[in-house]
Write a structure and sequence with these properties.
- Helix content is 36%, strand content 28%.
- The chain has 385 residues and is an alpha/beta fold.
- A seven-stranded antiparallel β-sheet has the order 4-3-2-1-5-6-7, with helices on one face. Strands 10-9-8-11-12-14-13 form a seven-stranded mixed β-sheet, sandwiched between helices.
- A hairpin with a 2-residue loop joins strand 2 and strand 3 (42-51).
- Helix 8 packs parallel to helix 12 (375-384).
- It is elongated and about 85 Å long.
- It starts with a helix and ends with a helix.
Length: 385
């Protein structure tokens, strides 16, 4: 027979997570997860409880965690999983209220011991064991919320995107937030971002995903309803010509919005006063299809593969420079390792200043000299006419 509280106390120094599941009649939540978190330099244990498809969070000290386990958790859940640095153990509730320990084993991690040691140091925002429906539907998590080994790279990529968002919003007090996702497709990133803002951070978020395909939009709205995400919805729209949300927005996201769709999305963000922009472009064909010889860059246009890459980099450099002229502080950064995806460049922008024209005249001169078209640059020209 195992004393669950004594076992939990012993596991806390190296705890990765504790999961209390299969509630009895006296349980407050359908499931409870405890995991270590660091907030403003201080260590806590975050309690995440699920009830009626909603998540409730509390950050607790070591003593508060053990008190919670003693008063509200032990004896009220039929199964308990403790995962710590020295392994994992499963506990099953007996009829007499005690727990039977069903064994202890090393915690497996993709990539062997080195990867496991690294992951003990790395605490992902979207942690294994969290009830994140989109990660289950994507096949990244198993139904019992464990990482699928074959999907580990995708798990890291998704966390990387959310971590970049969190870098911008970690100091922002939760309140009303309007988020648009252009070219959302069925990638489920929209659902994961909604989970981050609405469930994990507690923002009063209105989120809209736009896509060209009606069947995709219908599917996504059905999924949002299934998850209970009442302020997330999807619309069929072409960002280049259709009327979209006509009010200020806080955050615009594009993940692989194809070719010039990224330009129209960035233009929309600027015109509607978006404070934050996170854009991972895709398929930058426009300059590659129109650029011609005209000067010092000619040596880079001789070979098709080089021309294509130079054109893509030039496209995103122009986009970043225009956003700077619109008053944004801009970073161009690798979103994920190139080995995982060739479409790995992210434009991250935050509105901090007043517009000033510095880069745009240079881009106009470059476009005239080499005869190329670039949609965001042309949209700037149209506004000035």
């Amino acid at each position: 027979m195992a004393d669950l509280n004594r076992e939990l106390a012993a596991a806390l120094p190296l705890l990765q997570k504790a999961v209390f599941s299969q509630p009895t009649e006296g349980a407050e939540y359908q499931k409870v997860t405890l995991r270590p978190v660091t907030i403003k330099g201080k260590d806590y244990f975050q309690m995440e409880g699920f009830r009626d498809n909603k998540a409730f969070h509390r950050n607790l000290s070591r003593e508060e965690t053990l008190a919670l386990a003693d008063e509200s958790l032990a004896g009220r859940y039929r199964q308990v999983l403790l995962m710590s640095g020295d392994g994992a153990a499963q506990y099953v509730l007996r009829r007499d209220g005690s727990y039977k320990k069903s064994g202890k084993s090393a915690v497996p991690r993709p990539g062997g011991e080195a990867a496991y040691t690294h992951d003990r140091e790395k605490r992902y925002l979207l942690a294994e064991g969290e009830n994140i429906p989109a990660l289950v539907d994507l096949g990244v998590f198993t139904p019992d919320l464990r990482i699928v080994k074959a999907k580990y790279d995708k798990y890291r990529q998704i966390n990387r995107f959310v971590e970049l968002i969190d870098d911008a919003f970690s100091s922002v007090e939760p309140g009303k937030l309007t988020v648009l996702d252009f070219g959302c497709g069925k990638s489920y990133l929209t659902f994961i971002l909604y989970y981050y803002f609405a469930v994990k951070r507690g923002f009063d978020v209105e989120m809209i995903g736009y896509d060209l395909k009606e069947d995709v939009v219908g599917h996504c709205n059905a999924v949002a309803e299934k998850y209970g995400y009442s302020t997330l919805h999807f619309e069929t729209a072409d960002v280049s010509k259709d009327k979209l949300l006509d009010k200020p927005i806080d955050l615009l996201v594009t993940l692989h919005a194809c070719d010039t769709a990224t330009d129209y999305a960035l233009d929309f963000a600027v015109r509607h006063g978006a404070k934050y922009i996170f854009s991972v472009p895709c398929c930058q064909h426009e300059i590659n299809a129109s650029i011609s010889k005209g000067g010092d860059l000619d040596a880079l246009l001789r070979y098709g593969v080089v021309k294509e890459r130079v054109s893509a980099l030039l496209t995103d450099s122009i986009r970043a420079g225009i956003l700077e002229d619109m008053g944004y502080t801009v970073d161009l950064m690798e979103f994920v390792d190139l080995a995982h995806s060739p479409k790995n460049l992210m434009i991250r922008a935050e509105k901090r200043g007043a517009p000033r024209e510095k880069n745009i005249p240079r881009f106009r001169e470059l476009a005239e000299r080499y005869g190329f078209r670039q949609t965001l640059l042309e949209l700037c020209d149209r506004k000035e006419q």
